[in-house]
Write a structure and sequence with these properties.
By secondary structure, this protein is α/β, with parallel strands linked by helices. It contains eight helices and seven strands. The protein binds adenosine monophosphate.
Length: about 210
């Protein structure tokens, strides 16, 4: 069986990261969050980090070439693994470039999952979202509070005005990517509203043919 390549798409706060982490734990695949890798680069002050910090702070996409570099590195490092890209591609250009390079790694896109969540629900979820800065683990102050003793922070780009900008970017630049995969018959549409358990069950059912 060839190695699988799965993509997770959807607005900020749609649950991509939460479900990617759970799928990684329960199935044999490696989750790659381009956003998390970029945050690490910013924190470490690398050249890439310096290049992308401003874009991220403003809720805009980093340049396609930089996102592609992160993805190319992940493809090189995970030759043997089933891969799940969380939050990639986010522009049509990235989707086309991905289709260009995947055959070099003996891969193709097996499924592009779109988590559908309304803007109103995004804002409700993100306003309470907190992160453990050491592990990257995500909590919510009401729905999934961190255990006692874990100090969490709000992501700088989770402030309301930045979230509004990220939503705008999502609708204008990332939503068209779903149509790109729909036309190829690869889009897996998931209702992302409801409890994490309900959404995960929908996800597993929809991905059964790809995961087995
Ligand atoms: P995320 O953690 O997925 O919400 O991503 C956080 C931020 O990282 C985004 O708002 C973008 O600035 C940047 N980012 C993540 N993935 C991409 C991508 N595929 N293309 C461009 N920018 C990205």
């Amino acid at each position: 069986m060839s190695r699988k390549t799965i993509l997770f798409m959807g607005p900020p706060g749609c649950g991509k990261g939460t479900h990617a982490a759970r799928l990684e734990e329960e199935y044999r695949l490696t989750a790659v969050s381009v956003g998390a890798l970029l945050r690490q680069a910013v924190k470490a002050g690398t050249e890439t980090g310096k290049k992308v910090a401003g874009f991220m702070a403003e809720g805009r996409l980093v340049p396609d070439e930089t996102a592609m570099e992160v993805v190319r590195d992940a493809l090189k490092e995970n030759h043997e693994n089933n891969l799940l890209f969380d939050g990639f591609p986010r522009s049509l250009n990235q989707a086309v470039m991905l289709d260009d390079i995947l055959p070099d790694f003996g891969r193709k896109v097996d499924a592009a999952v779109l988590f559908n969540v309304s803007d109103q629900e995004v804002i409700r979820r993100i306003s309470g979202r907190r992160m453990d800065p050491y592990t990257g683990k995500i909590y919510h102050i009401v729905f999934n509070p961190p255990p006692k003793g874990i100090q969490t922070v709000q992501r700088a780009d989770d402030r309301e005005e930045v979230v509004k900008q990220r939503l705008e970017v999502y609708h204008s630049q990332s939503e068209p990517v779903a149509e790109y995969y729909r036309k190829q018959g690869k889009l897996v549409d998931i209702d992302g509203e409801g409890t994490p358990e309900q959404v995960y069950e929908r996800l597993i059912n929809a991905l059964k043919p790809v995961l087995s």
